[in-house]
């Protein structure tokens, strides 16, 4: 059965973020390095997303909710979320992932509504700023 992918708003994400079982996946390309990012988010750039999809699965082991976003969450974010959902379906592993979500309005919407932006250069972001 294909997994459904739904949308989450910035305020819903902000409320969920303190939970340890959520991962935010930023699929922007170079913009991440100069526009800042959501604290604690993982970076899997859309241009190499398919090549690194198995690494992403390893990195989100133990999480049950994944939130994808790009700058606007109109093209790259939904495309990568769909690729990941299809990948999970193909490998048929018990991954424990219950929710695949897309952040509405993406990073730009997040920042425009005044939500915290982290500007660290740590890879991965430790999520302690903001
Ligand atoms: Zn950071």
UniProtKB/TrEMBL annotation:
Residues 18-119 form the Rhodanese domain. It catalyses: [glutaredoxin]-dithiol + arsenate + glutathione + H(+) = glutathionyl-S-S-[glutaredoxin] + arsenite + H2O. GO terms for molecular function: arsenate reductase (glutaredoxin) activity; protein tyrosine phosphatase activity. It holds the Pfam family Rhodanese. Its EC number is 1.20.4.1. Keywords: Oxidoreductase. SMART domains: RHOD. One of its GO terms (cellular component) is nucleus. It comes from the Eukaryota. Transmembrane segments: none annotated. This is arsenate reductase (glutathione/glutaredoxin). It comes from Quillaja saponaria.
């Amino acid at each position: 059965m294909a997994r459904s992918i739904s949308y989450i708003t910035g305020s819903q994400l902000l409320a969920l973020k303190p939970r340890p079982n959520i991962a935010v996946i930023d699929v922007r390309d170079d913009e991440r390095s100069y526009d800042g990012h959501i604290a604690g988010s993982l970076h899997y750039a859309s241009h190499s997303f398919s090549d690194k999809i198995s690494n992403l699965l390893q990195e989100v082991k133990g999480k049950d909710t994944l939130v994808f976003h790009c700058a606007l969450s109109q093209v790259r974010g939904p495309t990568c979320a769909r690729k990941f959902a299809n990948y999970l379906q193909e490998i048929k592993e018990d991954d424990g992932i219950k929710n695949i979500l897309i952040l509405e309005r993406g990073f730009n919407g997040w920042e425009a509504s005044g939500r915290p932006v982290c500007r660290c250069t740590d890879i991965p972001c430790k999520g302690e700023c903001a």
